[in-house]
Design goal:
446 residues; alpha/beta; 7-stranded parallel beta sheet; 14 strands; globular
Length: 446
Amino acid sequence: MYLLYSLTLALLFVILLPYFAYKSINTSKYLANLFERLGYLPNELKSDGRPTLWLHAVSVGEALAAIPLVNALRSRYPDHRIVVSTTTVTGQAVARSRITSADAFGYFPFDWRFSASRTIELINPQIVVLMESELWPNFLWLCEQKAIPVLVANGRISDRSFQRGRRLRFLTKPILAKVSHFAMQSETDAERARLLGAPAYRVSVCGNVKYDLEAIRAETKSDEQMLLLESILDPGEGPLLIAGSTVDGEEELVLRSFEALRQSPGLTKTRLLIAPRHPDRFEKVAQLLEASGLRFIRRSTAAEMSRAIVAPSPEVILLDSIGELSRLFRFASVVFIGGSLFPRGGHNILEPALHARAIVVGPYMDNFRDITATFLRNDALVQLHSGPTAGLAEELAFKLKGILVDPEYATRLGLNAQNTIEAGRGATRRLVSLVETLIVRAGTSN
């Protein structure tokens, strides 16, 4: 089975090679980390003799979720080396900027035996922690052969992954058997892991580590441009709508809603900060704003930022940067979280909740179904109900207006969101306990 899998992986790589080449030439998206993913690691990732904890976070969401866990592991294992890997370039950028307790950062290897084996040998981990359930057969097989425990932390299984996995259970069961323990976010996720073939005694519910995130404080070190941006966002200039982690197609709807808001009595000075999820879309969104006729500035352009202080205040700020959105939520009057107007699974609502902000999401929050359900139960979230083609912009404008014209309602939503986070804390402590147990068990067996 592993041979067939490796051959299939190689065939797919060959088929997709023209695409990878095109992307590499135009964006350097894959070329920059190609050799590292083949197992040729920079010196910072190679073992220095200390016991190593290796934590893998696929992309931005997992990297952010890993912050409290890495901090707790650093506190529990001060003499260990902590390595954090990602799969995506944006995830790597966020990990390097936000995870301050790690010793080294790199990319996860391609799942061929030669590349995975070389990476494992050079990093030499005492344990591997996989955030949220990305499982690679050859990598897991090699960890089992080398007696390296693997913990799936903050595990979740989406509806789509579960349905696909049930049809292919004969393939998923032997893969899941290679994992030492599954620490799942909810009982639903735990039951799904068991139904897909994970041994029941290796599955537990630990809660969602994202509840253990801490808000980025106002006194966090800022560069001159960030201080300038924060002064532009001062709430005295008028209500601020933040549209965070937007995806293709959502910006047009957000802009329609924003322009409708500004036509309402008392909301004519409303401003918008828009933060696209993927950096490769910054330019496209800038062109969209240019065509809209709205006064806007780009965070990345120093001259535009400087002019905004003396010129008429911009109506829209395009946050074309990585890793800065979290600290700006505190300026918002209301926050819309993207990836949710179309069937894209939604994005994390917890960071604006940490700042007690009123939050609005679209109808599609499948990747955060339990968090969304909890927030809705606690009157801590507003969710739209229109389908992907029916009145989304109009409903979004209506919901946003209802919050902006009623400060008491906005405050209640924000405080309920913040209290919901406080009630959900504790997953990190349970995960650290599991790491301790697996390390001790592996040491005893060796």
